[in-house]
Structures are given as structure tokens and as C-alpha cells.
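Fold sample X.
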Amino acid sequence: MQFTPDDFAPAEKTADVHGLSRPSLSYWEDAWLRLKKNKRAVASLWIVIGLLLFTVLGPFLWRVDSFEQNLDRISQPPNLGVEALLVERGSRWDVPVDAAHPQGPSDAYLADPDRPELAAPENLRVVGEPNTWGVRIQWDAVENAAKYNIYRNTYEPTKPSELGLPLLDTLAGNEVGYEDALDLSAGEYWYSVTATDGIRESTRFATIRADVRLAVTLQTALRRGYVEAGSNVGAGDVIRLPAHPFGTDALGRDLLARLMHGAQTSLFIGIVAPVLYILFGTAWGAFAGFIGGRVDALMMRFADFVVALPFLLFMILFRVASGVEAGESGMAAILIAMVVLLWPATARLVRGQILQIREEGYVQAARLMGGDDRYLILRHMIPNTLGVILVTLTFAIPTAIFTEAFLSFIGMGVAPPTPSWGSMCLDGLKSIYNTPHELLFPALFISVTVLAFNLLGDGLRDALDARMRSKE
């Protein structure tokens, strides 16, 4: 049979209707496509990215010192800025005295066994504009009064048992004024005044409402940058204070800034610790599974021994060994405890994968072609376990974050004033009934972070499962 040059000419390309309907995808490309179909996993991925941006870029955008205390704005609810009245510091009010009224009751009144009950003070009024630096009240003198008792409440009293917080009694019956500067905050207060003859207090009282405005001194406004030096403002003017979107804590510190700083602490421990102990567990499990035999048995029995060690007890021992005193932060002790005690689970998982992979045909072929042990582990076995390792990492991160939060909550982790989400929850728990936002926001960040990483881990587990390819 003779061949001609035409027999070796290239064939013409024609459309192959029986060809593949779509190009072949790699393992990771196929996993990414399946992950994008999981809406919960994608949403969780965006939340994780947002948390990382909040942690890294947030302090550059929200330039508020997380340690700066502002005792004028203690436990403020979330706000976008409030108005404040400028006042002079150290302006003392001289208590008014009724010179025409005696300092005490008459002898005849005291000698009368059936003396009538003293009347309630009349013409009770607020002097000046009440603000958080002081509320001044004044009244007309009551006949035969030896002194007056002043009370404060947050609602209008209707009977003597509802008068509220006793402030101070006056020194004489002719002192007919009082200035309250005891822990005031912006809002409504009800002041009540009763008269006493020095022996018994009258059940009759006068009450007045005071709408207290937030006030700051001019010196404080200049120091904190609320007003510019040389500006034409003074006492009596109204300025607008900076916003606190998440409110302030019990020391007047901005919660948003502390949440950002706390995220750096919580996510540092929550990410660095799992990465370290998963890397160690991967190396341990890969080596044990690849070598096999007695070495494998000895290494895994040691892993079983580490699993039996109580985490909290050794956490305390690491704190003591590292010289951490009571009230000091123990971040190093938390990292050491996690790395030393939490790697066996990863080692077991990787070892099981290696035992399965080392019997595969492509590994045997690579061995016959002269590949040494190091090449087989780094080139074939570890890459084929990356899916399992990645899923393990996404589940380990929320566990580490919750562990740090729990340890800080019980006082074994990060100590004040360094913020972490756990320590902020501990601080917020003390005033949960009056200022719930101090506990709500750090607890919400912990919950959202843990939930997002768990849902992302579920999505990665399904996406990286090679058996799912045949079901689609």
C-alpha cells in the first residue's frame, strides 16, 4: 500500500456537536463554583471580610482613642452627636438665706405637745438653667422649720415613700436653697422638699421637675477639641459633641473604638492560635501516617495523652509559669495553651487522610519514578489534604475566639484596660439593666463572628468534598 502526501495533510476543523458541553474544571475551580452556589456560605464570607476590614482599617477611619475616658459622658446610649451647654468651671452658688425668718422654731412651738404638722414649702422653683454640672432650687421659708430635707427621683412622687434619693438637709431653717451636683446626667429629675422641726419630719412636701441638659466646661471643650482655640464661644453657648454610634461605657470610653481594638485582640488570638496548632498538627499527623508502624503508634499515643490534659488547668499553670500576675493580661499564656493542647484533633484527621492517600496509584507511581519521602509528602500528600485542613481551620477559628472570650469573661484572659470582646462583655454585665448596649454590642460581635465562621466552614466542607461532583 502506497501513501501520498495528501494522506498526511492536516484534517479540517469542523464543529463537534458530540464534544464536551463545557471545559473541564480543576478541583479548586469546581469547588469555588459550588461554594458560590451556597448563599449562606457566601454571605458568611462577606461578613468575615467585613470583620477583617473593620479590624484593620477601622482604626484608621474612626480616629478615637479607645482608652480615653470622658467622665462627662458616662454610659451614654448610641447617638450621632448631642448638643451640650458650655458652662464656667468652679462657679459656686451661694445658698440663699431668708434674713427675715428665724433659724429654728420658736420655743412655744416646741413646747406644745399638740403642735401642728409643718406645712409644705411654697413657691418651689428652679433657679437658672439646670444642667449636668448642677441644679439649683429655691423655696419660701416655712414657719417654725428647723431645716429642710431635699430628695431627688426620676419620676414624679405621689406619696412620702416615693420621694427618692435623700440628698442633704439644710443647716438652718432660714436657708431656702440647695444646689445638686451629685452624679447628674441629662434627663428629667423630680426634686422634693420637706420641712422638719428638728424632731420630726413633715409628711407634706413640694415637688418640682427639672429638665437637666448636658453641659461641659469651656476648659474641657478646648482640651478635647470640641471647640477651636480663639473661637468666639463662651459660657451659655451651645455646641455639638462628637458622635458615639455604639455609645460609651462606664468610664466614658467610645464603644466603637473599643470594639475595633477588641477585635484586634480577639481575632489575633482567634486566627494566630489555630493557624499555629493546625500547622503543627498537620506536620505531626502527616509524618506519623506516612512512616507508619511503631513510630506511628508511639506518636499517636502521645497525641492521645495530650488530649487527656485539662485545658483550663494547664492554662492556669502556663499563666503562673509565665509570671502573669492577677489583673494582668495573659495573651501569651492563652496562645501557648492552645498551641500545646489543641493540635491532636488535626493530627488525627491528617493522619487518616495520609493513610488513605499513600496507597493511591499516583503516589506509588511517583515512588517508582524515584520520588523520595519529602517529595511525596510535600508534592502529593499535603496538597491533597488541604481541603480538610482548610475546613478544620474555619471551624477552629470560632472555637478559639469563643475560648478567648470565655477566659476573658472569667478574668483569666485579657485584663483591663486592654479591650477584648470577652472582657467588654464582663464590664457590660455589671450594668446590663441600666445600660444594656455595653453588653449587647460585644456579645453581638462574638455571636456574628462565630456564626459566620461556622457557616463558612459548612460551605467549604460541602464545596471541597470531591464526591459532590458526581451529584451535580
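Fold sample Y, listed below.
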Amino acid sequence: VANPSLYKSQKNITHRKSDAHKGTLWSYYTISDMLNNEMYIGNMVQGRYGSISYKTGRNKPKPKEKWVIVESTHDAIIDIDVWNAVQGKIKANFKPFSTGEIGLFARIVKCKHCGYIMRSSTNRGKHYLKCAEKHKMKDACVGSFIPVDLLEQIVIKQLNQFTREYLDKDEFEQKLIFQNNFEEKIQSLEKEVTAYKNKIDVCFKVIDNAYIDKTKGMMEEDDFIRISRNMHQDKKHYEEIIANLLVQIEDVQRRMQQADNRKALIEQYSNITDLDRPTVEKLIDCIYIGDKDPVTKQRYVEIHWNF
């Protein structure tokens, strides 16, 4: 696909010829703008920039809450499901391996104990997922750990078992199962949002108490600045998590309203033998990893499906 400047040159829309050596290459900033521009999904967006001063005529970006957005003013050229999936990835801030590939379960696997996303590690060429919170501070988390290939086997086994059981049920039972799953997922996400809002309230209380101690002479100025800075960093982190959770809630609510053919989707992925990243993104919302059972030696794995 030709980039904008080359396309204009080919169509004689502009008098300036595109540099021959650029070919069809697209710039990073053009792609970045497309991934954040609602014009591509049919919405009119205005007021993104405002004048700094009438004397200079210079403009500066305005916060998104002050933009003027009118929905469905023209035909979309990007499907809304694709758009929402992209926005979710942007907020999740995926980090690829040095090879340029996104891990099979990147940003999907969470620690059952603390709820934080488990990170990838490599030992002797083998990939693992582990909770990094365990090493941040004392008693932060007992930590969770699992090899990626073992998790893949568990997911495939549970998926094939689920599809066999589902396809044996009649249409009414299938619909009831999905409706209950969606409602349970929304309740779970809303519970997480409430928990992180409470953590933000705690940050404010810590800052307020530290300020009172400082004014009474019970705390040094440097200590107050350090505590305040740490609390603001935590607050920002929690706000990012809440924003991501709200996007997930909207996505689940949208899927509840859609009359999509879930049976066809399940039939498509029945009896699979291996996983790839697109399949994982399409089928799995998140996975919680817990401790190994002392008797059975089985690792605790809780899978939340997208369907």
C-alpha cells in the first residue's frame, strides 16, 4: 500500500514528487496517528488544538475531554471491533521480545495472589512466566510461576474439553452459559475497578497525613516530598489499570449485545493441537496462575474465555 505522499504523486494530486528512495514506506508518526484518530471509524473529531494567544496564532494540543466528537458522520473504513482491539493493545503497552515477536501469553497471564501481570523470563532457552511483585518488597506477594509450554498444554486441553461439552448442549443451554459468563466477567471487572479506586483513596490519605505531620514538624520536608512523589506514582499506575479495566468492561458489554455466532467460533477452534498469538487474543481474556497443589502437584490455572 502506497504511503500518502507516494499515493498523491501517483494520482497527480500534488505537484511535489515523492522521493524515489522512500518507496511505499510509511512513517512511524503517520501510523501512530491513524491508530488514535477516530475519523477512521466514522466519527468527526474537532477542537483537538487550541490557540495559545491571539497575538502569536500558535496552537497547542487540548485535552481529549475538551474535544468535540460527533459519532457516525461518515462511513468508517476501520471495523469497530478491530479498532477496539487496537485500543486495548495500546493501553496494555505490549513489549515484544528481542526477536520482535509478542509472547504467546503477553499481558494476559496474572498472578492469582496479587493480581499483577506476570512477566516473561528465559532460562537455558526455555520461556517462563513469573510474578515480579515477589521481589519488589518484603511480603508483597508469595509469587506465581509457570513454564509457557506447560501453560499452552493446559489451555489447549481445557479448550478442547470445553468445546466438546458445549457442542453437546442444546441452543438454549449454550445461550444461558454465555450470558452467565458475560455477567460474571463484568462483575469481576467492576470489583477490580472498585479495589483500585480504594487504593487511590489510600494514596490521598497517606499524602494528607504526611502533610499534617510535616506542618506539625513531625516530618522533614525531604521525607514528605519522597512520600508524596511515591504516592502520586502509585496513583497514576492505579488510574492506568482502571482505564484498562473500563475498556474491558465496555468490550464485554458490547459482546453481550452482539448477535454473533458463538457456536461457529467454537467449532472453528475445536480439536486444536497448538496455539498462536492471534488465537490466544481471540479466545482468552485473561489467565490467573496460583500455587501448585501439594497432593496432585497440579498448577492452579484459572482461564477466563472471551466467548
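Sample Y note: The mean pLDDT is 79.
Also: Helices lie at 4-10, 28-34, 80-92, 148-167, 171-215, 221-257, 262-268, 277-283.
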